[in-house]
Write a structure and sequence with these properties.
single chain; alpha+beta; Bacteriocin As-48, Chain A; 3-stranded antiparallel β-sheet; two-stranded parallel ribbon; 5 strands; DC-UbP/UBTD2_N; DC-UbP/UBTD2_N_sf; UBTD1/2
Length: about 110
């Protein structure tokens, strides 16, 4: 499905960002799991959250296909703000979409 203006935006990774403190991949993974486990409790449909998770973890071309097939309206091309066809809002933090610039090695 296309957004209301008839065109689906190209999806891209968020601009480089920095976590407040240096973070390891295992810490980042834990934060991501906690977000995805609690995301449906913020409203919206579980199916849309599931589609957004797969899109967030996919390459950009596949992410675009997933978003289109789920009828997700992309407000920000980096997927940080999306809506479903009923108007429910879905906000994704950058840490579920890409790695920070200050990612450090696990010990």
């Amino acid at each position: 499905m296309a957004s209301s203006n008839g065109a689906t935006k190209n999806i891209r990774k968020p601009k480089p960002w920095k976590h407040p403190q240096p973070i390891t991949m295992s810490q980042l993974s834990k934060m991501r799991e906690e977000f995805w486990d609690t995301a449906p409790h913020y409203g919206g449909q579980k199916e849309i959250w599931d589609a957004l998770r797969v899109a967030a973890e996919s390459e950009e071309a596949l992410a675009k296909a997933i978003v289109e097939s789920a009828g997700i309206i992309v407000s920000n091309a980096d997927l940080t703000l999306c809506y479903d066809e009923r108007g429910a809002k879905y906000e994704l933090p950058k840490y579920v979409l890409s790695e920070p610039t200050n990612l450090i090695q696990d010990n």
